[in-house]
Design brief:
heterotrimer, A mainly alpha, B alpha/beta, C mainly alpha, A: mainly alpha, 14 helices, B: alpha/beta, Rossmann fold, 2 domains, four-stranded mixed beta sheet
């Protein structure tokens, strides 16, 4: 909201951030040569869950609505890839595209109803739809394997090593992030922000608010589906708990940790969450206790998440920037 | 001032990334070749906590015993890494990877739910790590998607179903039963046990008609609606496949409805855990099924010794889950002894078709599916003056080779899988 | 402990019931089991609905606290076990003890998030679940706990030939007492009027010089008292286990969605609807009980987001 900042300073700050991103990408590229196999697995998980969280933030950060059923799209993507690869032997790359399409289709149907509601009702309706799909997957034994899930989802031979899979995931995730970034910078993205800040005013401007919200919902669902699609071959199996509401909480947590006010905040959240998870479970079984306390502390003392904290320090500004930044 | 802050931030950023990288590197290097790292994946929360806790206790006991004589081969003390799977397959997979890659385990014992077992099986095979499920017993663990690294030391769901069917076929003839209802937990084990039982009943007692099947979800806390629905339909008997804490809830609530007084309930899984935890309330006279009741093998010195040590350490009797988990450690030990190596690839080869000593006597692994030739047990629940809880009387032991799935059916199932 | 001697009676009973009467007894027994399930849900959801209605905070951790209540009831029962009345004392004791915990939680934590966005409140109470569940694990361990019921509620009763677990008579009775008690409190007492007024307009209440934060504290405590009571009542039904709260919170949400946020009558009706859907879908579509419940909830949210008895003012 406050454009009165020193523009030069702002630019240098943005440039600094871009510099940081280049540094991070370089680190990501050489990472497998530095760290061991276990941490490469963790890195793959960070990327996949980060993509999932960034797609969640399309709804949360840009549209201002809290979805508690985002795991449904993630799970639909995972099952699309799983079913196509394990039962029909469709190539991985095609399955991934299909995962985006099917998750997008589900998002279209579910979103059609959800975008009519806001606030608490939106949260609970997405939760209800998510649970509905979860129970269907769980009960439909002949098709989805029920609780057993699907086994034998092997990545193509070229990607069978974890390092290869890491690079593959890295490329896909970066590509997806770039696409989402451009969407968020496009007139469409700014319209979404206008809707978030004041839906009525936007409507008076002659914009079909519902249609914009639905498109955004579908985009978010499709990218969640892509993330889910990457998950199956990584684990060689999938199970219905990928769709459960507790799974929907994970991108929410990541976004809260990283900060919803910035595009890459959820990815930062994923790095922290997943790394902490891998690190902490090594020596205590009380991982949920630790992450629960972390989340509560962040909400109490640093509502903007880690990114918000950094931005605040950089800008010496008490009000966090309302516009979503990188 | 601002510069300082920024610099500080950048420095901390770089420093934290640096330390992150070095710490990850360091953590990985810290694997000691002088110990035998043994992974355990059992839930201490969620639906499987009741059985999982006993499994962990028995594994700890076995590890202590082996370590007191220097460990495996007398020189590799066992280092246990125990992880909680929360009865969730996706958690089980992550933990399996963690155990293999970071803790450098050579073998993973456990998982409670069969869905977790089938999920971690390919991970273990990929990294050439032995996998002994012990508590999970869906036959799909060893029947299809076969992994040479996976060994099953408990009777699988087919063997258990067959044992029940043989018992029920006899009872049905005697009592003139005509129809029945099934109630099974809606997950891999419940599903496969129920379908095997129904298929085998068709074969051995074709006069019986399946009236209806019920699938309460895993983790159900209130079975009342199922209980009343089943009672109102008045079947001649009911077969249940419900496990762990769900089973405790189910038995407790069904009893409060007078269910077992009205409807025979033969051959459902009632392990020693249920006998102990519901010592006061469980219905006497029920015909139950058990996987490894310690009191069936008190003629085996290894069992006597195990019960004595388990009681000394934990001040309670071991359940089926403890017995099988204990045997899984000793199966591993015998494989290592025979291979003269802790290399899991070698151990898996020596265990192939091997005869091993267990608390349940001398048993062998079948070549085609690495299934131990262990028995299933049926009996009538009755009080016993020797124990503070009821045990099985008139115990019928159905041996492994009498009850396991014929090899040609396994070959057929695998051929179908490959297609 | 054993209650024998019913065998001969039930045999003849079984032969008498034929044709139409069997259908009736089937439907009636499903109705009763649905009612008892509904009563349990009402006990849980009433506190959730009250807190949301007055404070506008949807407490994700409500069922986690409910589970703490069940564990507390177990602990009290265990301590008082030598006495015959232990169960009946331990249930209200659990409710009171949990209220104290609720009071502390409100003062230390919830108070700080009143002015936050809805999302922050939701995520905050969601994180509380993780903390509470783990604290339960640390305090009570991983082994399941079970209360042995006194003999008076250990055997079934038969109502028109339909069996009912006699403990559920107590559950249904408690549900009814809570419903009537809350109704009386909200519509007949001074404090009740203030709370009802606060549901509609916080500003108005505070303009009247009534300290809103104080009301919030006590409403929260009352809501958590109900959660503790519900936990205590739940304790003897089956075994008390970790993670039991996960499925329950979602069902409680569904109840509140169907009945309407902040409406006591709505919560009551919603509970019975969900309980009965569950009981009857088992007859007709055994696999689909949960699916059906979420379908009903989704339809309700789509056509009438404020529920059957709620008011459409909050979005």
């Amino acid at each position: 909201m406050q454009w009165s900042h020193n523009m030069r300073f702002f630019q240098s700050y943005a440039m600094k951030k871009q510099l940081w991103i280049i540094v991070v990408i370089i680190i990501a590229a050489i990472l497998p040569t530095i760290i061991g196999a276990f941490w490469i697995n963790v890195a793959v998980e960070i990327l996949i869950m980060g993509l999932f969280a960034v797609s969640f933030n399309m709804i949360f950060g840009y549209m201002g609505q809290l979805s508690f059923g985002h795991a449904a799209f993630y799970g639909v993507g995972a099952y699309t890839v799983g079913l196509l690869m394990a039962k029909l032997s469709i190539p991985f790359s095609l399955s991934l595209i299909a995962a985006m399409l099917s998750a997008g289709a589900f998002a279209l149907i579910i979103g059609y109803f959800c975008i009519r509601l806001t606030g608490i009702y939106f949260a609970i309706l997405t939760l209800s739809f998510g649970q509905l799909i979860y129970y269907i997957v769980f009960e439909w034994y002949s098709f989805t394997g029920g609780d057993n899930g699907l086994q034998g989802i092997a990545a193509p031979h070229l990607l069978s090593s974890v390092t290869a899979y890491y690079y593959f995931t890295l490329v896909i995730v970066i590509a997806a992030l770039i696409v989402m970034w451009y969407i968020s910078r496009s007139p469409f993205g700014y319209t979404m922000r206008a809707i978030r800040d004041n839906a009525n005013r936007t409507r008076f401007l002659g914009i079909n608010v519902k249609r914009y919200m639905l498109i955004n919902f579908v985009i978010a669902g499709a990218f969640a589906g892509l993330a889910g699609g990457l998950w199956g071959p990584f684990n060689q199996s999938i199970s219905p708990d990928l769709l459960n509401w507790t799974e929907s909480g994970i991108p929410v947590f990541m976004t809260v940790i990283g900060g919803s006010a910035s595009f890459l905040g959820p990815m930062v959240g994923s790095i922290i969450y997943t790394f902490l998870n891998a690190f902490v479970t090594g020596f205590t079984q009380y991982w949920p206790l630790i992450i629960g306390i972390v989340i509560m502390l962040i909400i109490l003392f640093s509502p903007g998440g880690i990114q918000g904290l950094i931005d605040k320090w950089y800008k010496h500004s008490d009000s966090s920037d309302e516009n979503i930044e990188l | 001032m601002s510069m300082k802050r920024r610099e500080f931030l950048e420095l901390t950023g770089i420093a934290s990334i640096g330390s992150l990288l070095t710490s990850t590197k360091g953590a990985e290097a810290a694997s000691d070749p002088r110990t035998y790292s043994l992974g355990v994946e059992l839930p201490s929360t969620g639906a499987g906590a009741l059985y999982g806790g006993d499994g962990i206790a028995a594994i700890k006991l076995a590890a202590d015993e082996i370590n007191s004589s220097g460990g495996f081969l007398g020189r590799y003390p066992i280092k246990l890494s125990i992880r909680d799977t929360h009865t969730r397959p996706s958690v089980a997979v992550r933990e399996a990877r963690d155990l293999i890659l970071r803790e450098k385990v050579r073998c993973i014992l456990g998982t409670y739910s069969s869905a977790s077992a089938v999920a971690i099986k390919p991970i273990c095979e990929e990294h050439k790590v032995l996998h002994i499920p012990a508590i999970s017993n869906s036959e799909n663990i060893t029947k299809i998607h076969f992994s040479p690294y996976t060994y099953q030391v408990g009777p699988n769901s087919y063997m258990q179903a067959k044992a029940v069917v043989l018992g029920i076929a006899k009872l049905a003839k005697k009592k003139g039963w005509k129809n029945y209802i099934t109630i099974a937990s809606d997950y891999e084990w419940g599903r496969s046990t129920q379908s095997n039982t129904v298929a085998l009943l068709k074969q051995f007692a074709p006069q019986l008609k399946l009236k209806k099947e019920y699938w309460p979800k895993l983790g159900e806390t209130q079975f009342t609606s199922y209980i009343t629905a089943i009672m109102a339909q008045k079947p001649d008997f009911v077969i249940g496949s419900i496990a762990s804490k769900d089973n405790v809830n189910w038995l407790k609530q069904a009893k409060a409805y007078g269910f077992f007084k009205k409807i025979p309930y033969p051959g459902s899984l009632i392990s020693v855990s249920e006998l102990i935890t519901q010592a006061k309330t469980i219905t006497r006279g029920l015909i139950g099924l058990s996987r490894a009741p310690f009191f069936a093998h008190l003629n085996v010195p290894m069992m006597v010794n195990f019960v004595k040590n388990f009681r000394a350490k934990y001040n309670r009797y071991p359940s089926d889950w403890a017995v099988m988990s204990y045997d899984s450690v000793y199966a591993l030990k015998q494989g290592i002894d025979k291979a003269h190596s802790i290399n899991s690839s070698k151990v898996k080869d020596t265990l192939k078709s091997a005869i091993i000593s267990t608390t349940r006597g001398k048993l062998f692994f079948r070549c085609i599916d690495n299934q131990l030739s262990c028995s299933s047990y049926l009996g009538v629940i009755a009080d016993d003056s020797r124990y503070p809880f009821p045990i099985y009387h008139d115990l019928v032991e159905v041996k492994g080779p009498e009850s396991w799935r014929p090899e040609e059916e396994i070959v057929e199932a695998r051929a179908k899988e490959k297609r | 402990m054993e209650t024998g001697g019913r065998n001969s009676g039930s045999k003849s009973e079984r032969e008498e019931i034929t044709g139409e009467s069997m259908d009736f007894s089937l439907i009636f027994s499903q109705f009763l089991s649905g009612l008892s399930r509904g009563a349990m849900l009402f006990l849980i959801a009433s506190g959730l609905s009250l807190i949301f209605g007055v404070m506008n905070i949807l407490n994700f951790a409500h069922a986690a606290l409910w589970l703490v209540g069940a564990y507390l009831a177990y602990t009290f029962w265990n301590l008082l076990q030598p006495y015959g009345f232990s169960l009946w004392v331990s249930i209200p004791l659990a409710a009171v003890a949990l209220s104290a915990i609720g009071w502390a939680i409100e003062r230390v934590l919830i108070r700080r998030i009143y002015n936050r966005t809805l999302s922050e409140q939701l995520v905050f109470t969601f994180a509380m679940i993780l903390v509470i569940d783990n604290l339960i694990k640390i305090i009570w361990g991983v082994q399941d706990k079970a209360i042995v019921r006194p003999s008076i509620v250990a055997s079934p009763v038969f109502i028109f030939g339909a069996p009912l677990d006699s403990y559920f008579i107590f559950v249904i009775f408690t549900g009814a007492v809570v419903a009537i008690g809350l109704w009386w409190f909200l519509s007949k007492t001074k404090y009740g009027h203030i709370i009802k007024a606060a549901v509609f307009s916080r500003e108005m209440v505070s303009a009247l010089g009534i300290p809103v934060p104080k009301i919030y504290t006590w409403v929260f405590v009352l809501g958590i008292f109900l959660a503790g009571l519900a936990g205590g009542v739940q304790a003897p039904i089956g075994s008390i286990t970790l993670g039991m709260d996960n499925a329950v919170i979602i069902q409680a949400f569904i109840v509140v969605v169907i009945g309407g946020f902040g409406s006591l009558l709505g919560t009551l009706v919603g509970s019975i609807i969900v309980g009965e859907i569950y009981a009857f879908s088992i007859l007709f579509w055994p696999d689909g009980a949960m699916i059906l419940i979420f379908v009903v909830a989704a339809i309700m949210l789509i056509i009438r987001p404020w529920g059957l008895f709620g008011t459409p003012m909050r979005t």
